[in-house]
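Here is an idea for our session: we take a single protein and study its fold together. Once you have written the record down, we can walk along the chain together.
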Amino acid sequence: MSSNRICLWYDRDAEAAARFYADTFPDSRLGRVIRAPGDFPDGREGDVLVVEFTVAGIDCIGLNGGPTFTQSEAFSFQIVTEDQQETDRYWNAIIGNDGKASDCGWCKDRWGVSWQITPRTLLDAMAAGGDEARRAFAAMMTMKKLDVAAIDAARKGPQ
C-alpha cells in the first residue's frame, strides 16, 4: 500500500465491495480487513471498520462509516477498455451486480460508487480534436453503455 490512497466511505459493505472489485478488474486485490477495536456510532466492536484494497492498480481503503455520507458522481473510477468485449465485460459486471446504468458510459455499482467504462477509441478521438472529436462526442452523448463500433464510425465521419 502506498502512503497516498483513496478513501471510499461505505455504509457497511466495504469488504463486499472490495471483493467484487478484486474479482472484476485486473490488477485489483483485497488487502487487510481491519475490525473495530471498540463500539462506534454505526457499529460494534469486532465489526469490519476498514478494508484495504486495490482497484486497477489504485490503492484504496474502504471505511464502513455508516449512512451519514453517500457516494456521488463527484468521484468515479474510469476504466479504459481496448474493445467492445472488454467494455461489455466490465459494464455487465457492474450492472449485473445490482448496479445502475447512466449516460455516456457511466454507471454506478450497488454501493453507489460511480464508474466510467470508457473505450480507448473515445479518448483518442477526444485527443485528436476538431471534427473527429465533435463527431465522437456527439455519438457518445446518445449512449448509455458505449458502443465501440459506433464511436469508430463517428470518428471516420460520413463515407
Notes: The CA atoms of residues 108 and 114 lie 4 Å apart. The chain has a mean pLDDT of 96.
